[in-house]
Amino acid sequence: AEYMGERPRQRGHYRPGYGTGYFQSGLPDLVPDPYYIQAATYVQKTSMYNLRCAAEENCLASSAYRSDVRDYDNRVLLRFPQRVKNQGTSDFLPSRPRYSWEWHSCHQHYHSMDE
């Protein structure tokens, strides 16, 4: 059986999936929640037409950009959510100021980080 509970933190060691063991004063430390990802991951089959926003941002495998791929062709995706905790001692801030964020109308949100 797999143990899913919290493991105690030992000085000088790190817990896999729980960020670094090196705590820097005044810095963010972003830690993904591996159990949330594991519990909510699923496989989805969808058409290229429904993936046009992902294609616009070059988020698909290189085979999706071949000239013979059509809107009605299907792709199999591994979908997973993200839940990230900042266990650092400072806020995580975007690298660009708010006035320079880019609106992406295809999927209706701003991009605030440099690529």
UniProtKB/TrEMBL annotation:
Location(s), subcellular: Secreted, Extracellular space
Catalytic activity: L-lysyl-[protein] + O2 + H2O = (S)-2-amino-6-oxohexanoyl-[protein] + H2O2 + NH4(+)
GO cellular component labels: extracellular space
Primary localisation category: secreted
Description of post-translational modifications: The lysine tyrosylquinone cross-link (LTQ) is generated by condensation of the epsilon-amino group of a lysine with a topaquinone produced by oxidation of tyrosine.
EC number(s) reported in the record: 1.4.3.13
Cofactor needs: Cu cation
EC top class, as a word: oxidoreductase
Sequence similarity: Belongs to the lysyl oxidase family.
PANTHER family in the cross-refs: LYSYL OXIDASE-LIKE-RELATED, PROTEIN-LYSINE 6-OXIDASE
Protein name: Lysyl oxidase homolog
Organism: Micrurus surinamensis (Surinam coral snake)
